[in-house]
Structure formats: C-alpha cells, structure tokens
Amino acid sequence: MTTTLNDLIEVDPAPEPPAKPVKAGLLDPRQLLRSVPDALRKLDPRVMWRNPVMFIVEVGAVFTTVLSMAQPSLFAWLITIWLWLTVVFANLAEAVAEGRGKAQAATLRSARQDTVAHLTDGRDIAAPQLQQGDLVIVEAGQVIPGDGDVVEGIASVDESAITGESAPVIRESGGDRSAVTGGTRVLSDRIVVRITQRPGESFVDRMIALVEGANRQKTPNEIALNILLAALTIIFLLAVVTLQPLAIFSKAYQAAAPDTAALDGHGVTGIVLVSLLVCLIPTTIGALLSAIGIAGMDRLVQRNVLAMSGRAVEAAGDVNTLLLDKTGTITLGNRQAASFVPLQGVDPEVLAEAARLSSLADETPEGRSIVALAGGGDVPAPASAQWVPFSAQTRMSGVDLGGRRIRKGAASAVLKWAGVRDAEVDEIVDRISSGGGTPLVVAENDRVLGVIHLKDVVKPGMRERFGEMRRMGIRTVMITGDNPRTAAAIAAEAGVDDFLAEATPEDKIAYIRTEQQGGRLVAMTGDGTNDAPALAQADVGVAMNTGTSAAKEAGNMVDLDSDPTKLIEIVEIGKQLLITRGALTTFSIANDIAKYFAIIPAMFAAVYPGLDTLNIMRLHSPGSAILSAVVFNAIVIVFLIPLALRGVRYRPSSASRLLSRNLLIYGLGGVVAPFLGIKLIDLLIQLIPGI
Ligand SMILES: Nc1ncnc2c1ncn2[C@@H]1O[C@H](COP(=O)(O)OP(=O)(O)OP(=O)(O)O)[C@@H](O)[C@H]1O
Ligand SMILES: [K+]
Ligand SMILES: [Mg+2]
C-alpha cells in the first residue's frame, strides 16, 4: 500500500466548507410564532383524531361555536375562543417540536445535490437510478452518489454534511471502516463503492424523514398511554353528562347574571358542560405527549445519534444491562506494544523480528504498534509471504513464509496452535494480564519465542460513569476478546459490574439472549459485520457510523460520531424521556382533579347554598370560575412546552426514589398550581363586566 494515513489527512482544504447542521437550542419565542401556521393546519380533524383527548376538545369547540352563534353572549364567545386556543396550543407544542427537526432536514437537503454516479463499467448515471449492488468509482473532489461499502481503495472523506464534524475521516475496504454515506465528499484518492441502499431509501433520506418526524410512528407505550387517557376522557364525559344539577345551575346562573341572559337554559348548559369536560379530561398530557416523544428523538439528533424508531429511544430508557466493549470503549483503545519479553534462551532480536514479520500486513492499531516497536518497518516484506489476517474468532494473526509459520495472538489461541504447554509462558502471560495489559504470544512453528506486552489505558472518568449507571439500576458488563485475567484487571480498574472474557461474537448473542430471557432489556454498541447479529438481538443496538453497512442495518440507532461511550448518554436521554412523560402525566391528572374542586363548589354554591363552605377559592362568580378554569387549562399547555421539549431535569438515582420525588414535585405541584392560577385569572376576569 503506497498511501499512508498521514498522506490522507494532510489534503488540500475541503472545497467550500458545508454548513453545519443547525443545532437548535432551547425554545426560541420566534419558533413558537413560526410554528403557528403548522399548528393551524393540524386542526384538520383527519389529523386531530389521532390524539383522542384533543380531538374531544376540538369537537367541543365546534359545538360551543355553534351554540355561541345561535345565541351569542360574551361568556359563550370567550369560552369558545379559549377552547379553540386549547387545541391550537396543543398543536403548537407538536409543531414546535417538529420545527426544530425541520431546520435540520433543510440543511441536509441543501447538502444533497444532484450527483452523477460513475459506474465501473464506464456508464454515467444519475445517482437516484443506482441499484443495490452497483459498483461506482469516486475520486478526489467528487460526492459519493449513494450509501455503500468501500470494496477497493482507501480515501479520506468529508462527512461534515451529515455529522457536522469538519475533520476528514478515513474510509477503506476490508475492515470495520468500510461504510460510506451518499452525499459525503471524497477529499483524496479513489475508491470503488458497492451500493447497498435501495433507491430512495438512502441514509440521508431516512435521516430527513426522521428529523422531520414525517414517519414517526407512535410507540407502544405512547399508544397505551393514549388509550388510558381516552378511557379517562370517557369516564369524565359520562360523569359530566350525568351531572343532573347542571340544568338547575344554568337556570340559577341566568337568574344571577341577567345581563348575559339573552340565552336560554340549553345554551348555557351546553357551554358549561363542554367547559367542565375539557377542564376535567387530561388535556395537558394529551397536548404534550407527542412533543415529548419528538423532543427525545431530537435530543439524540443533537448529540449526533439517529434513532431509527421512537421505540428504540424508549427502550434505551428502560435498559437494565449495558454491554460495553473493553477496547476503545472502556479503554482508550490505542492498545500499543510496550515491550517484547523473550523466553529464556531466546535472542531478543529473534523475537522482535518474528513479531515484526507477523505484523507487517496487520493494519490493526496493535499490529502497527508492534512494527513500530520492533523498528525496521521500511524493510520490505518477503515476496513469498502469505498473510494470515487477525480475526476475532481465531484471535491470532501472522504470516507463512515457506516453512516458517509465525503466529502472534491471544495466549490460549497461539499455544493451542503451536501445540505446546509451557510454565514460563504462563508465568509471563499472568504477570502482564494481572496488570491489565494484553499479552500476545509469539510462536514460530512449534516453538514459543516470547510475549508482546500490549498496554491500554482505562479512560478517565469511567468509574464515575459506571457508578451513575449503578445508581440508575443499570448493570454494566464489559465484553472483551481478551483473556480473563486482563479482563478482570481492567474490569476492577474501571468499576464495571461484570465481564465476559474471550468472547466471540456468538458468545455476545448468547449473553444477550440469557439476559433477555430473564426479562431484562439489553443495550450494546458495535461496528463490525461480526457485531450485526448481536446488534439486531439487543433491544438497543447502536451502530457506529464508521462501521459496516451490515452493522448499521442491524442496529436501531446510528452514532454519527462513532463514539461507543455515547451509549451511556443514549440511556440517559431515554430515561429522561420516560421520566418527563411520567412527570407531566402526573402533573396533568393532579391538575384535573384540583380543577374539579375549584369549579364544582363555585358552580353549585349558587344552587345548593349548603355547598358554600366548600367554596374555599371564593371565585368572583360561577361564570368567572368556569372561564378561569378553561383559560388556565389552555395556558398551562404553553407554559409546559419548554419543559416538554427540554425534558425534566434529572439526576441519576434509583427508579423508586425518582418516582417518589416526582410524585412530590409534579403531583403536589399539579394540585396546587390550578388553585393559584385559577384564582389569579379570576381576579382579572372579574374586571370584565357581565361575567
Ligand atoms: N492484531 C492482532 N493480532 C493478533 N492477535 C490480536 C490482535 N489484536 C488482538 N489480538 C488478540 O485477540 C484478542 C481478541 O481481540 P478482539 O479485538 O476480538 O477483542 P479485544 O480487542 O480484546 O476486545 P474488544 O471486544 O473490546 O475489542 C485480543 O485480546 C488479543 O489477545
Ligand atoms: K384538562
Ligand atoms: Mg478489538
């Protein structure tokens, strides 16, 4: 190979740096305004009925509109206006949540251009005509026409159009960095890409659809909550309809407020009925539910993670077991050769040369560091060399040079290959392993020459993060192909709960299955084709963007930064989504119950004077009580939009402690808020003459 990594990275500056995707901040008041047209469009009943609670409010608003037109009064019109506002505010919450993604989608679209694909057979076709399996040539300066895997060559690629990261990345055939994304630009060299996407289903297409929320499906949890809310709505509907004294109240109300009495008893009854119903059904959570879900996806997008479904985000919040790779996730991952330890009677030079020869074609970081430590990397490899590449299954790599067969790799694997048992080797391997190092045994034919000591460092801050996970009730498990002693040493240093050593990809799947059979949800990250089955099996499978297409297809999330520790953040975001939904549901229902006690006594005190002692709020008049409650019910939605989008602030602690804390804050807050809010609004409303 003539191109080195450094040649690739020091390329000419990219042709005009593409715009960074918009990273929307918190709620911007202008965003509220900009979303108003969308919110109005969503009033279409065909859209509304998917949200049963708000659909009932809309039907109610239509009903009071008709009543108000039939028998106009200030009271009737004010109620009607505020009922419509309630529906609009709910739509606004959803539109604002979607709007933030739309800005991002617009940037993505502008980054995508009409690209011509140069097929290997010489034809030039438009990118959208590409079929799965087509082979295209992409040269320096050209845009990659579709998603695929590099099958030939190595190149540096500018992926800023999708990741927002301006540093070029290396994509090469073979290994686990072979996937390329349509719409990104090759900066240097030439690669041949085999297209893996189906037409119209490119990664960027899916990304646009995702951030726009166009194909957002309700998650099973959301559907369940919606059913519960609808059931509550029906119960309240029945309760309100069967409220006998309403008719009596209406008459009394007319008597008490004769200046609005241009309407008959039925008009008032209808309007009061709808108002009461809207106040009692769980409109707050009904209005915010979908915004909470979209915002969760959005928070992931802002951290450069694409969740392929809302369900995956929720599953992340419920995860019990986190599987993390050792090398590169828990450790820095640039496992470097630190020293060669020859066996007694072996010339150190002979060991170094064998290590060098076995690593000349080994492109792993380990292999390169061995060549560097042995020196003489410029000495060309013998032409007769037959390379044996490293694989996670064999755990060895090496070279065959005629009669000389050299292998290096995990002790157990190499000793088995060489067919030897040696106490001295065991002793060296143990010493390196118990210090957290990785020993690679080097053998030539049936003779062990010595051991290479690979060093890796646990990333700073890991112990604290795993401590946080534990407080959340999540078990962290380190998975490694390394031997059990090294694994134990690193596991102890990093503070994980458990580890799985000498793990093959099959072992990973088996581990995931056992966890799932115990009723636990499992999350993992992966990048290689090897990882694809395990990624598919896991409840949350985060594929690295640098990984293979197979891995990206199998997982249900993609991390554009390819940072395996991101899994921890993903779990936190999922948890926050679930907690936010729980907190606002609690708030909403507590709120409704409080409203019941605020309005009913005010209304019925006029009919049954005995109830007057219950009328603790001393609202101005029954009409004002009802109007205040309706107004409060509407504006509480707007007040809570920022919280729904940002998510409830949350510190890691056990589920039960979180629950009791949230019940206290949002339950109690939900009970108190309406009393204060309604009283305040009532003080303003009583200034309006005639109510
Ligand atoms: N380039 C290599 N050549 C030979 N043997 C290797 C090479 N790289 C790793 N090994 C050996 O194979 C073992 C398994 O490696 P593998 O990459 O599957 O897992 P790992 O890197 O130890 O852990 P992780 O799952 O976190 O990546 C290593 O522990 C090491 O003993
Ligand atoms: K309500
Ligand atoms: Mg590895």
From TrEMBL:
Active site: D325 (4-aspartylphosphate intermediate)
Signal peptide: none
Catalytic activity: K(+)(out) + ATP + H2O = K(+)(in) + ADP + phosphate + H(+)
Similarity-based family: Belongs to the cation transport ATPase (P-type) (TC 3.A.3) family. Type IA subfamily.
An annotated Gene Ontology molecular function: P-type potassium transmembrane transporter activity
Gene (UniProt): kdpB
Name of this chain's protein: Potassium-transporting ATPase ATP-binding subunit
Domain of life the protein comes from: Bacteria
Localization annotation: Cell membrane
Mode of membrane association: Multi-pass membrane protein
InterPro entries given in the database record: ATPase_P-typ_cyto_dom_N, ATPase_P-typ_P_site, ATPase_P-typ_TM_dom_sf, ATPase_P-typ_transduc_dom_A_sf, ATPase_P-type_domA, HAD-like_sf, HAD_sf, P-type_ATPase_bsu_IA
Main location as per UniProt: membrane
Family annotation (SUPFAM superfamilies): Calcium ATPase, transduction domain A, Calcium ATPase, transmembrane domain M, HAD-like
Its job: Part of the high-affinity ATP-driven potassium transport (or Kdp) system, which catalyzes the hydrolysis of ATP coupled with the electrogenic transport of potassium into the cytoplasm. This subunit is responsible for energy coupling to the transport system and for the release of the potassium ions to the cytoplasm.
Binding site residues for ATP: D362, E366, F390, S391, A392, Q393, T394, R395, M396, S397, K408
Subunit relationships: The system is composed of three essential subunits: KdpA, KdpB and KdpC.
